[in-house]
Specification:
The complex is a heterodimer of chains A (141) and B (114).
Chain A (H helix, E strand, L loop, with lengths): L4 E7 L9 H12 L4 H20 L4 E7 L3 E8 L7 H4 L9 H5 L7 H8 L2 E7 L3 E9 L2
Antiparallel strand pairs in A: 1-2, 2-3, 3-5, 4-5
Helix pairs in contact in A: 1-2, 2-5
Chain B lengths: L3 E2 H7 L3 E4 L6 E2 L2 E3 L3 H6 L6 E4 L5 H8 L4 E4 L7 H10 L2 E4 L4 H10 L5
Parallel strand pairs in B: 4-5, 5-6, 6-7
Antiparallel strand pairs in B: 1-3, 2-7
Classes of the chains: A alpha+beta (141), B alpha/beta (114).
Bound molecules: adenosine-5'-triphosphate (ATP) and magnesium ion.
Amino acid sequence: MADPIHLEYEVAADDYQAAGAASNSVKETLKMLGLPTAISRRAAIITYEAEMNLVIHGGGGKIVANIDEESVELMTIDEGPGIPDVEKAVQEGFTTAGDRAREMGFGAGMGLPNIKRNADVFEIFTEVGTGTTLRTVINLP
Amino acid sequence: MASVRISELCAEIDAKVHVPGDMDREVERAAVGDLLSFVMGSDADGAAWITVQTHLNVAAVAVLKDIPIIIIASGREPAADLFERCRAEGIALVSAAASVFDTCVKLGRLGISG
Ligand SMILES: Nc1ncnc2c1ncn2[C@@H]1O[C@H](COP(=O)(O)OP(=O)(O)OP(=O)(O)O)[C@@H](O)[C@H]1O
Ligand SMILES: [Mg+2]
């Protein structure tokens, strides 16, 4: 892999129909680059959960992936409501998902825990009323 | 642990096949779940997935988890967009009249494990 790869996707608020499109593209790119399956699986989980959080909670936003020889960096950036209590939000089972999302099987409160478990670096920068940035890094073997 | 062809699995549970996918592919394991993040975070990779969810996002999870067959149990029918997406992705999509539990029991009889 000579040059670092930079990918960006726009995700619209409440767009359940497009869900998973960005995650799938990231996974396919990693596969194409010949990265180990274990890595692309972790990246798929992280991007999917982050993408769905943009759709459900973040009011839409952007997914950014940066891939180089050392790591896969996956970020989401939104200008949504922000997260008042991050410590609570990363606990398994915590959710503010509404009825519609829950009926569809979202709102288990497992997205952020899933992301954390699959990332070597996990950071949330958030401010209520301003938005949320999630940054994760998977180190490559 | 048995390897079971998807076609054989479908016959055992009396499945209605909506999208055949690759009927010759074999599965060894199955997973159950209706909470998408729960399935996403589980080790369902490559397993048959039994759920009562019927909407498009089921396919999104299946694609990311390399799940070759989605079994919608309890007599529920897939939404049209789930059908379309499974066809585009080559994922088998079937439904079973039996409950989730009864469907699992039948898969267990074939030697499929959790
Ligand atoms: N981008 C975001 N903007 C605002 N709030 C968020 C964002 N991401 C997560 N949250 C908050 O953190 C909570 C926990 O998120 P998490 O992904 O763990 O669970 P969930 O999305 O509610 O359910 P699941 O992911 O299991 O479907 C959410 O319910 C929401 O309150
Ligand atoms: Mg979530």
